[in-house]
Amino acid sequence: MLQIKNLSKKYKNLTVLDDINLEVADCEFVCILGPSGCGKTTLLRIIAGLEEPTSGTLSMNHKTIKGITPEIGMVFQEYTLFPWRNILDNAIFGLEMQGVDKNTAISKARKYLRAIGLDQFEKNYPHELSGGMKQRVAILRALLLNPQLLLMDEPFGALDAQTRNQLQSELLRIWSKDKKTVLFITHSVDEAVYLADKIVLFTARPARIKQIFNINLPRPRDRTSTNANKLRSQILKTLGAEL
Fold this sequence. Notes:
The structure is a single chain. By secondary structure, the chain is an alpha/beta fold. It has 2 domains: 2-71 and 147-241, P-loop containing nucleotide triphosphate hydrolases (Rossmann fold); 80-146. The protein is built from 8 helices and 10 strands. The strands form 2 sheets. Strands 6-7-8-3-9-10 form a 6-stranded mixed beta sheet, sandwiched between helices. Strands 2-1-4-5 form a 4-stranded antiparallel beta sheet, with helices on one face. Strand 4 and strand 5 (63-64) form a beta hairpin. Helix 7 (189-195) packs across helix 8. The protein is globular and about 50 Å long. It starts with a strand and ends with a helix.
């Protein structure tokens, strides 16, 4: 699905990404872990077409990725909602930019809003919602564009633990139904073990791939199971060498 070959990124004399090689399969949920500032977000921005690599290639379904494409959606850590638009209008913004008829866009958005329990808040504005509710809308807006690949840059990082756990479960429910390919950045080993089919561990800057963990835990996952705890300890030990 997604192929990254020999990808590097430099800013003048600073190397951020160094010879990244990674393949992400169709419908796979992949988490990237690594020290702060190692280049995880830079990689997502390059895949999304927001930046260009210094060297290397990117392709999706064997087609070179060049610039921004509707086949790739992105959810940021910040909620990126327009404060002057209500929740429904925020949700349909991307569809409007694609020229979708407004009534069609509203119909699609309301279906998702019902699914995530926000249908009663469609006329509210972002400042009237909690952080978790805002992030639900941001994820909804990305999913409405029906991307083949969904990039998520620490989308739950600013939320409290209870809300984060709830949104992780909601995201997995949507993913299991829609079967999007997801590339998800997180600083939380617990989150990665709970969500991922595969965990990619980055070194400190300049980022290289240190190790890839294939997660064979059954779904739905028990966060407190013996196997989950063993895997968590193994990843923490490997990650600790980079801090």
